[in-house]
Amino acid sequence: MPAKITDDELIKAFETIGSPAEIARIYGMDVSSLYSRRRLVEKKYGMTIESTAALGNRKHPTFISNDKRIAQHTVENGMVFIASDAHYWPGEPSLAHLAFVKLLKKYKPQTIVMNGDVFDGARTSRHDPLYRHATPTVKQEIDACKDRLYEVQNASKNAIKFWTIGNHDIRLFRYITTSAPEALEVSGIDIFDYFPGWNMCWRVDINDETIIKHRFKGGYHATHNNTLTSGRTIITGHLHQLKVTPFSDYNGRRWGVDTGTLAEPYGPQFGYTEANPVNWCSGFAVLTYKDGQLLPPELCEVIRGKAYFRGEQII
Questions:
Q1: 111 near 75, Cβ under 8 Å?
Q2: Which CATH superfamily is domain 60-313 in?
Q3: Angle subtended at Cα 21 by Cα 154 and Cα 36, rounded to the nearest 5 degrees
Q4: Where exactly are the structural domains of the chain?
Q5: Helix intervals (H) in the chain
Q6: For strand 210-213 and strand 233-236, is the pairing parallel, antiparallel, or unpaired?
Q7: More confident residue, 262 or 131
């Protein structure tokens, strides 16, 4: 493999290969270095270098505000797969993750949203260390996230991919900037620096009627209160409950959806529960749009060691 890439090779690679991960692999680079090099080349020649994947995304109008707050996205006909609270740790993937990947391969959705807390950040938490509980290093967690998200990306390569920011996802940034604020301008202190293939934002708005974000209201009735307060169909994670709550008024029919957790509810990431029962469920949500209209949201749910979707056992 060549150790370096020329300016012309870099420009051509983004135009022909498209995938930053694949370009980095071919040229023996890490992805963050590739993106740094691209910025230098863009500044040098006063141009914008876009990948074929990014150009292809224009078929589905998408706009992300400069401060990463809101992504405005359009889906006329197609599916949107939404998973949250993966809290990826090293080791074997969860059953829900395997089902997620398998259904992505089957349905090839237009859009994929990882709805927050992909990264766990066990060692960068503000909470006390867990009693007699070994936690992975930040590098081990980042590597696990890379492995799992590569599987997601590879399962539906043409999908537009969003990652809504979760409270765990910003643990690394908060930890470093609190402990060493002088490092604020250094690349690599933000978890998102390691995943350039994903569109990062606080919120995704689809067709001006559906909101996807990591969290809003809390408590058992969060899904009801979310859609009541927002006046929209709203998809959230954070509470790990996995459920769909319908709501109707003079504005019509809409839904509040909790996307559950892609992790195992009693996995090692959640040792802080002290082995108490939790009202959580492993799974994810699927949205289907027909002529721009959202149909009733669906869930893939893990029940007693098996994953089901539309009445079919997936795993």
A1: yes
A2: Metallo-dependent phosphatases (3.60.21.10)
A3: 150
A4: 7-53, 60-313
A5: 7-16, 20-26, 31-45, 52-56, 95-107, 138-155, 171-179, 222-230
A6: parallel
A7: 262
